[in-house]
Amino acid sequence: MSxxxxxxxxxxxEDLPGIAxxxxxxxxxxxxxPQTILQNISNGSIEEFNKKVxxxxxAMWARFSDIIAQNPDSVTVIARYLNLSSSNTQHPQRMxxxxxxxxxxxxxxxxxxxxxxxxxxxSYIYLLDAALNSSDFNAAYNAVIxxxxxxxxxxxxxxxxxxxxxxxxxxxxxLITDNWYNRYFNPEIAExxxxxxxxxxxxxxxxxxxxxxxxxNDGSVRTEAGIKFSKSVNEKALVEAKExxxxxxxxxxxxxxxxETDALSNEFNNILERKTGVESFKTFSKVQAQMRxxxxxxxxxxxxxxxxxxxxxxxxxxxxxxxxxxADMKWLEEKLMTPYAKGVAAIDGIxxxxxxxxxxxxxxxxxxxxLLNKEINKSGFTYDQALRV
Length: 389
Known about the structure:
globular; four-stranded mixed β-sheet
């Protein structure tokens, strides 16, 4: 990488706003002990560090996303470059995580491990997948970067990250609804010699983790402050969800005139005629349709991977070839896919909010949650069933 950087023949992209150079302090310099960290918090060095590494990382991925969108085959070369971040400690992918906290009382960098809360490899694999397959890369990037954090974690605590937790998040962990610290504070880690004490880690504003997030070593809510914190996060998300619903509901229902519906029907029939050869003006009874369709598609066992989603399936089934096919796809996108996508997005927003509310309720009331599937005094009913009556 150093040879490439020094090569005067290399052509680089536009300069990044507010970033004069790409030199970044090493972890062992800027985070070498608690005293240095506190000093660098006070003088603004860590804030500047976070701003710089996040700016470089964001710009890098914006350009990766654009390149992959133009040429999906380029993902192979980009993946190889990102793989270098496993061994190169100054790689912009590895350095992209923002520093959020440190174990108190360590003497030197030999006593800590610099932990990427969402592991480095997991983060870039997710982003590569999003660049290839997601319709909204920016949303995927924001979700990743909100969990891609850096901790100076005492080795005594780091050694408790055994099994999958050494390099992965918990099983079933969700990038959207869960938190990056679930990797450190969960029931499995808590069973390993008491787990990691949340209050042994200090945030950049001087608070202890347990107090800041109101959590125990097993990830459950510890205090009223924690419940209030979780509730405030949920309330904010709920307000946003309600506003989205109001916006959707406030829009007048789309009403088409007979002429408009006839035009939609006619154009769709024309598309089918070009695809199948059946004249657009013909109509069939149910029996005729069943007879004609009896042998259609019986031997099409394989559908290409790029048409397995709804958009791809619609285009595969209905759009023609060449320029006319492109025009067909444009019409299908405007008249069918866009309204469908908006509806799915609205439903998904509410579904995610319900999941977040449920997870916070479980964390706030773990004992009550464990009772749900238990029988009530040999009545034949569980607490869960009683609540539903």
